[in-house]
Amino acid sequence: ILNVEQSPQSLHVQEGDSTNFTCSFPSSNFYALHWYRWETAKSPEALFVMTLNGDEKKKGRISATLNTKEGYSYLYIKGSQPEDSATYLCASDNYGQNFVFGPGTRLSVLP
Amino acid sequence: GAGVSQTPSNKVTEKGKYVELRCDPISGHTALYWYRQSLGQGPEFLIYFQGTGAADDSGLPNDRFFAVRPEGSVSTLKIQRTERGDSAVYLCASSAGLFTDTQYFGPGTRLTVL
């Protein structure tokens, strides 16, 4: 069974700060890495699907990079806003395995 | 178009009772997934359907859990003889195809077993 890890577990930043966090996943039989944002009382919202080593994706102030050889992905948020407060989940899709989520990073952006 | 919906949003039941949780996927999505999320953990895979058939049910924790999708659209997750350890948020997601497609999640059903 895959082990997908995320760090830090939680994070508090001031409005306007930039921040980043990490998702680690097994690199063997890798197929795709997904990032989701999950706000309290809402549905998880898909941010990115990344498949190729060296992939970089961007959506507004949020971007992500992927290293499939060493098995990690970084999510960056530039100029954090209070509405960015949420749990950020990554999920690894590997051949022969089901979708495996990490435990998430809980981000709080303080005004 | 409407997103994924789940009913009920909250369910409180007593230990030993039977519960059904419903998921309405996005229209036209062939793949449907059930996950369970316990406090402090990421969603844990339970089962996924491709059309009407359960393509993979290896995540169901034991034979008290069962899920159906008889017409390839709405799905029901059924839990018999509920236990306190079944308390969790049950999430449903749908996608146009397989796991590699973006999954769109419903808001979840919070199940509390007293």
What tags apply to this protein structure?
heterodimer; A: 111 residues; mainly beta; 6-stranded mixed β-sheet; 11 strands; globular; B: 114 residues; 7-stranded mixed β-sheet; 4-stranded antiparallel β-sheet; 0% helix; 48% strand
Q: What's the quick description here?
A:
The complex is a heterodimer of chains A (about 110) and B (about 110). With about 110 residues, chain A is mostly beta strands.
How would you sum up this structure, described in words?
The complex is a heterodimer of chains A (111) and B (114). Chain A has no helices and eleven strands. In chain A, the strands form two sheets. In chain A, strands 2, 4, 5, 9, 10 and 11 form a six-stranded mixed beta sheet that branches. Chain A has a five-stranded antiparallel beta sheet with strand order 1-3-8-7-6, with no helix packed on it. In chain A, a hairpin with a 6-residue loop joins strand 4 and strand 5. Chain A starts with a strand and ends with a strand. Chain B has 114 residues and is an all-beta fold. Chain B contains no helices and eleven strands. In chain B, strand 9 and strand 10 form a beta hairpin. Chain B is globular and about 35 Å long. Chain B starts with a strand and ends with a strand. The interface between A and B is medium-sized, with 24 and 26 residues.
What fraction of the residues of chain A are assigned to beta strands by DSSP? over 45%
Q: Please report which band the strand proportion of chain B falls in: under 5%, 5-15%, 15-25%, 25-35%, 35-45% or over 45%.
A: over 45%
Q: How many beta strands in the DSSP annotation of chain B?
A: 11
**How big is the Rg of chain A?**
13 Å
Report helical residue fraction of chain A: under 10%
- Tell me the greatest interface: A-B, 24 and 26 residues
Poorly predicted tracts of residues of chain A: none
Count of alpha and pi helical runs of chain B: 0
Overall geometry of chain B comes to globular
Rg over CA atoms of chain B = 13 Å
Determine the number of helices of chain A (DSSP H or I, runs of at least 4 residues). Answer: 0
What is the chains' assembly state?
heterodimer
